[in-house]
Amino acid sequence: MGSFVGACEIVEEKDVVRLAKHSSRYCMPPLGSSNDIEQRPALKSGYQGSMEYDIDQLFQSITIKPSPRRMMGSSFHHLETSASAGTSRCTSAGTSRSTSPSKKGATKKPFPMGTPRSPRVGPSDSISLKQALRDLCISKASEMAAQKRLSKSAAASPRVSEADRIKSLYRQVLNESAGRSGLPVDKGKSLVEISLTPVDDIPSSSQSVPQRFDALETEPSDSISEPSQAEIILPVSGNRSGLKTVGCQVSETSLLLKSHKSGSSLSSGSGDYELQIEENASYPPHVVIEDSLVEIDKHVTSLPSCSGSKVYAEELDKSIVSSARLKSEPTVLISELNGNFGNAPSSGTEDRKLVSKVTNNIPRPKSRPKRRILLKRKLRIAVASATKMVEKVDTSLVEPNGSQVLCQKCHCAVKSTSSENHLLTDTDSTEKCSNDLRSFSKDVSIEADQESLASTRLIRIVKCNKDPNKDSSDSCEVCDSGEAVIVMKQEVSPSNYSGKGDADEQIRENPTSSEKFEFSLSSKNSLGDYSSSTSMSEESNLSRFSCGNKPHMSMDVRWEAIKHVKLQYGSLGLRHFNLLKKLGCGDIGTVYLAELVGTNCLFAIKVMDNEFLARRKKTPRAQAERAILKMLDHPFLPTLYAQFTSDNLSCLVMEYCPGGDLHVLRQKQLSRCFSEPAARFYVAEILLALEYLHMLGVIYRDLKPENILVREDGHIMLTDFDLSLRCAVNPTLLRSTSPPEKDLARMSGPYNTSNCIQPLCIEPSCRVPCFSPRLLSTQARNPKQRKTKRPDLLTQQFRSLPQLVAEPTEARSNSFVGTHEYLAPEIIKGEGHGAAVDWWTFGVLLYELLYGKTPFKGYDNEETLSNVVYQSLKFPDSPLVSFQAKELIRKLLVKDPESRLGSVKGAAEIKRHPFFEGLNWALIRCAIPPELPDIYDNGATEVTFPEGNNRYLECKAIGDHLEFQLF
Ligand SMILES: Nc1ncnc2c1ncn2[C@@H]1O[C@H](COP(=O)(O)OP(=O)(O)OP(=O)(O)O)[C@@H](O)[C@H]1O
């Protein structure tokens, strides 16, 4: 507080009142009497003992060293006389407090902030004690106020208007500031209460920080405990103008988040946080602010004493020096937190609590007059998390030269290849820093809106999610528009702090920057890699198949097993597998069940003879399949663990699916067809798989029950990609050209005005109106209202919203591919086809699962093809199938691909069909499947090995097929 002497800080009036009340406590009867406790509800919070002790100590000190100079403050005089008078004084003061408002006001005099009176005037000896007392009282009062505020509902607070006033003040300043800088001011809503204190002579934060530390250092350890402080200063830089301004520091902006918390016994996590934005007022309005500073000054309750604070202060100073050193690095400005605190062991919990610092990297000329905007944010902090909160930047991430940061997840290098400062554009930076700081604020469990953060326009903080696989510590990466990457960690609980955090979320790249951040764990990277290279590669590419490329399978032990064998033998080959069964034989190869030698890991290995493929001109199909398999990472699609070539045999080591295929499973059903719920389950999973493939630019083209394998857990896996078409995807934002009503009609057909059967219920008694209730308001959910009303306006608006389509709706191919009964009319006609063929086959599949046969099957293939093109769709009378199911099939089996459901907006269109109403798409992978497969009877042929276990593969071409035999 001493550092803010003279500051014209606007403080909430309520705080001042509480301050006065708080100060009057010194004149009240001794603690412990019930009377006293009743009158001081805040003291019930548990810190009155230590405070009383502190005050007693103070009083004693003051009495021992009487000085006429102390009389300069009337309030101090009052305290001194009170102290010497003993308890009776308190009674009298207490009486006067209750009877005379003016005297009550007098008790506030030593404590108000912003008065002309300065306790620093005069000799420091006695004044420092006064000041200490004053500081203590103020901080205690602040805490009491904060605690009280926590217990009060926001709605009941009369401070609303004051907050508004303060906000408007703040906005004024921001507007002014933004006006000068040309930056827009974030007009987001805010719950943050701020007080603005534009002060000309207030020291800059760079000055004030050491002052506070000095105070900590000079005070004896047995005197009043100064609130311990920890700071996080996130140095960032940006460019308001959006120009790449290299190096030259024009002005500074600092944002200071400060919390005041005193008394180690205070368990509450409440505190006041201050945001200070400093701007160099000497700069003309048009000058671009380049450097920014985020400073979070947080009192740490765990600091036991001033001696501890001393060490801590020294360490903070070191941190500042260290940061300054980093600042001098031209290419990367890395600020550090934890590691700066001496060489504190990372395991020490107390030290860890202290370590929250990134210092100002920017050397500030002291002589320059500065204008400070002090934003005081009253932030309500979750009690538990606030006390446990630790923000830190791990210096271990910073290489000695300060030019490189390591990704915490994979310890890969996060390089800034730019040697220049690449700064954000105005809007970018403003938006991003505002958003980022919101995220950051959430990270530190501060419940507050961030309107006041609008002016932190040059700061980019990227929140990183918690990695559940590692520990509970959060990791944040903070990027200062490309110059620096700061990794912040937040510890939720000291007990589970491990010192490591994972950055799950990639830093958003600065669109104006040429720098590149390289992360090894990025599925986006693998996608990019794939798209740039689709050629066949053999073992050299095995390393690419790290679990990092298949996040959803990253915990799979089979990755480790493969890796282990590869490490042990240098390469992976057929010799490392025991071929157990022949699972099936396809057009381009034979699939075997295989066990990796020395492990219990089973795989399905597809073996293809390269020579055979070349002879039959099927190499491109094999290549396409391999390329597609390489990029898949989806629960309903196969995982490719490895690929290699042995003896001119190309092998794909895939995930083994023990449940056979859906065709076999359907045959096992009583009526040779699935129930509607079961069919819905399977086609829903297929739909997700197709959607995923489409988004990867893969048109599957060979959907049929035989290619849908059943996993051990009963979920499905779509396999066989040798007929798939790879194409480019141009995600487009599709605006609805048709009026909402037309969209609705397209989606729902006649059902938006009539009754229909629920998808999972084929009983007529279950007839209820079912059109898209998910999108309807609660009012419209009422069947009575729905009977009379047209679809809800909200639904219409939703339908008319632009929609992102990331599927290859425009792709075209003229190949004649597929299976006769599943061929789409446009393929048969040779008109060229696109992704809509998958929606046709999807309709045929649903039909077959429900009716046990395909819709256009003829006596022979020719008739089948003819039926597909010319015959209209008919539904058998039995089994009984819901209206929605039939409707969906009807909309999918539209002969004109452009009118087919899904042809315009892809899978999203189909997902919204009432047949899937109520289905939780996101959690379907966790849903209980209709049945579990009999994994010991999947029709695979047992492979018998000759004596001596000498196994050789012999491939035979049988017709168009290639079959491998063991002999
Ligand atoms: N991962 C797997 N797990 C279990 N069985 C599999 C797996 N992959 C394929 N199979 C079985 O192997 C058989 C052959 O599959 P493959 O993909 O080689 O050809 P296909 O689908 O039968 O026909 P084609 O490749 O000619 O279109 C499949 O029918 C299936 O029963």
Automatic annotation (TrEMBL):
Enzyme class: transferase
Polar residues: compositionally biased ranges: 81-102
Keywords noted in UniProt: ATP-binding, Kinase, Nucleotide-binding, Serine/threonine-protein kinase, Transferase
Domain of life: Eukaryota
Reactions this protein catalyses: L-seryl-[protein] + ATP = O-phospho-L-seryl-[protein] + ADP + H(+); L-threonyl-[protein] + ATP = O-phospho-L-threonyl-[protein] + ADP + H(+)
Protein kinase domain span: 577-916
Protein name, per record: non-specific serine/threonine protein kinase
Organism: Camelina sativa (False flax)
